[in-house]
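## Example pair
The file below holds two records. Each record gives the amino-acid sequence first, followed by its structure token line.
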Amino acid sequence: MGNKIFNAPHLRCSQNMLLINRELILSLIPLIITALLKYGLPSIRLMFFSVLSALLIESFISIFKKQPLTIFDGTAIFTGLLIAFSLPVAVAFGIVFLTNLIAVGFVKNIFGGRNGCIFNQVAVAWLFMCLAFPLPMKAPIMVGCLFFAVILGACWLFYKKIIDWKVPVSILIAVVLTSFISGQKVHFLLADAGLFFAVVYLFTEYTSSPYTKIGRIIYGFTAGFLIVIVRNLTGMNASIFLVVVITNSLVPIFERIGVYLHLYVHKKIFSSI
């Protein structure tokens, strides 16, 4: 029997996805607690309604396609929480539902389906809602005041080896270097919780980020450079989400460069032996 070749991302089994999502959700506990202490019950209502919307939309799609329910792997819960943290606390529930509908109902199914979406669902949905409802989306996002909680979540993911250091570190180095070269104040940018939230949870998404080591580094440096440049044109929140989508679309190029460089280095090593 011949070998079968499948498109990336290569997830071994549904149990892997369940375990990964469990750790991702656990990493959000500091953010959930801090949001409750900072914003009170409105933050809990926002998170609850967002997760509920994601679960209902995911269930409807599974039933409509006559497929097994996929809500038990934790993906919908995690997506709903990310959307909640990416929205203003006082945003209308209608916008919360529409954001989840775009992320889970359209982006996820149009651009690769379950475990294969080539674009980050949260970033695409946020940008669409920003264009459709610019005034409500201009308000500060909930995660904007949760800096230390995001850092704690990142430490947990690094400890559990859920995310690789190459993408976050490359992004932050590129942000510092680009800010320094362009004469911008680096400390203001690095103190933004929204930036770290995107670095930890959006840019590192398995299905929409590079697989190769070199590809991840190029991906991270490109993202960090673009964040500083685009930030001056669109504002902090919009720049981050826009750069996520742009760099997602460039992942095949980063992967190809990574593979070529990897093969080139190995060729040089073996040719010198």
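Second record, same layout:
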Amino acid sequence: MKLIALSGLQAGLKAEVALGLARTLIDSGASVTLLDNNDHKMAVEGIESVRFGGGCVCCSMAAQLFPAVWKLKTDYALLVTSSAASPETLAYVMGQVRGERVSVATFALIDDFTRTEIPYLADQLTWYADCAFSETTPIQDILDAALNIFQ
């Protein structure tokens, strides 16, 4: 199974990318589960989803994330993280999830506010991610990167 974690501050941007990626993967014949730890519950229709509310999957919810991921039978899992997720801690947790059956990639989605007003966080998001994208990156480029990162 391939797990793609989406990190960054903008809940709407992460939701847009996750849903676009889920639909693209499903259209290509892959099975997908959405792991929703976004700041607000995501509205999903026709996509299997698991909600991790009330905390962050990189710390207080990590103990619930591990068994949920390891039990999945889908081709892809898309993890939409809380904006509170620490990039360093998320990288550590994703390293613990990674295994013989689970490949992991982290995508940082960095908005202009984060880049200009919180540059330290933007740098951390970029440093700990496998791929980093600005909010102006065309969604098709992000989807293409997601489809090719595990090859």
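Notes on the second record: The chain has one domain: 22-109+119-148. The longest strand covers residues 103-110.
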